[in-house]
Automatic annotation (TrEMBL):
Listed InterPro entries: Alpha/beta_knot_MTases (IPR029028), Ribosomal_eL30-like_sf (IPR029064), rRNA_MeTrfase_TrmH (IPR004441), SpoU_MeTrfase (IPR001537), SpoU_subst-bd (IPR013123), tRNA_m1G_MTases_N (IPR029026)
Region (Disordered): 1-33
Alphabetized GO MF terms: RNA binding; RNA methyltransferase activity
Protein's recorded name: 23S rRNA (Guanosine2251-2'-O)-methyltransferase
GO cellular component terms, semicolon-separated: cytosol
Basic residues: compositionally biased ranges: 15-24
Positions of the RNA 2-O ribose methyltransferase substrate binding domain: 37-109
Organism: Novosphingobium chloroacetimidivorans
GO BP terms in the entry: methylation; RNA processing
EC number: 2.1.1.185
Gene3D superfamilies: 3.30.1330.30, 3.40.1280.10
Top-level lineage group: Bacteria
Gly residues biased stretches: 1-14
Keywords: Methyltransferase, Transferase
Amino acid sequence: MAKGGDSTGAGGKALRGRAGRMKNGRGSGRASSGAVRLWGRHAVEAALLNPDRVHRKLWATRDGVESLNGDLPPDFPVEWAQPADLARLVARDAPHQGLVLECEPLDDVFLADVLEGEAQRPILVLDQVTDPHNVGALMRTAAAFDAVAVVTQDRHAPPESGTLAKSASGALEIVPWVRVVNLARALEEIAEAGYWRIGLAGEAQMTLAEALPAGPVALVLGAEGEGMRHNIAQHCDSLARLPIHEAMESLNVSNAGAIALYAVATRVV
C-alpha cells in the first residue's frame, strides 16, 4: 500500500454475480462435487437460516449442534462426527467449532439489480483484493454498516469458500456479492446510477472526510500491496486518503475499509 493512509494495503433476498470457480481441494472449502463447505458456528448458522441456500449435508458434533440454539431446521440430516473427523473436511487448522455444512454456491447477483436498491446505502468495490480473509472481513464490515453490495471482478478475487465465509462471520449470507467481468465498466454503471465514486489512495491530496459528498457513495479499495490499478483510479470521481499518522505507512485493506464505511455512516449531510 502506498504511504499516507492508502486503503489498498496488505481487502430481503441475497443476490449473487458471475463467479469464477477454483479447483477443488482441501483448504479451498469447496467439496469435490462443486459444492461449498462452510464451517464455524456463525457461518453455518447464517447459511442454515438463509432461505436462498440449498443445503446438502451437515457434519457435526453434539456440542456443535447445541451451539446453534435451535436454529437447525427440523429433521435436517446430520452426520454425527468427532472433532478429528471434521478437521479432515476443512482447511488445515480451521476452527470448525464442531460444524461443517456442505451446500450449493449462492445464486448469481447482477449489478443492475443492486443499483435498483436504496441509493443512500454505500457500495464497496474491491479491485483485485485476493485474500479470502480480507474479503470476508470486508463483507462483515459491509453488513455492519448496511452497504448495499460488495463488487469484485470474476478474476483476481477469491471464490466463495469456507475460509471466506468464516471470516465474514455470517455476512456472506446477508450482503449481495456482485462479481463482474470488467470492473471499469461496472464503475461506469455505478456512476450512471448516481453514485459518487471515491477511490482510497495514500497519495491523494484530500482526506476522505473532505471528499465525501452528501449523496450516494461507492468506495473503491485496491489490492493488497499494489493498490488500485491506474485504470480503476481513472474511473473514480475523486481520490481520498485516510489521515493516519506518518509513523505508520499503511493499513490492511480490511481495516481501511472498515474506517471508510464508518466515515460514510457518520457523515453529516
